[in-house]
Amino acid sequence: MKPETIIENLNFRALETKMYRIAIFLIVLAILIPAAVFMIIVIYYDIKNLGRGQIISIMGLAGFASFFLVAFIFSKFLAKNYVMAFYPEKLTVQSELKEKQFELNRIRKFEVWNNSDYSKLVLYYDDEEIKYHVGFANLLNVKPILQDENILDVVFTEKKGFIKQVNNVKGFSKICYIKA
Known about the structure:
The chain has about 180 residues and is of the alpha+beta class.
């Protein structure tokens, strides 16, 4: 029989580190490709009478189109659904393909970067740093990872040796639970 979770499961879509690197590469391509295509068209058709406003409009539209295309690719093809469950002595992170278990007494630090495009969950477990990039997976639908900043206080308690630190800067919040 599986033990009861302490709090409700945390469901999120995220990119693992490998997919995050691919996402950064796609962002660079999304910047370069519209400019390169525009330059190729201008050179090939020998267009010389474009005004500054027309160029800015064309590049702006191409930028918006490439952003939405890249954001769609992130959310539909690179991101995975995860369920993080908090038990009295461990936490588990489960995706469609695998499940990882982390004992609470071996977690050195747990960070939640909340309320931004760069939202992520970072888990420092023994000598390993595990990141789940939530913000990049949800560029078209940005929402905070934690609606209530105090919900994890029940899991990472002072009794278990954790100290909570919260930094709020310009609407972005970073919640850290550090092993004392």
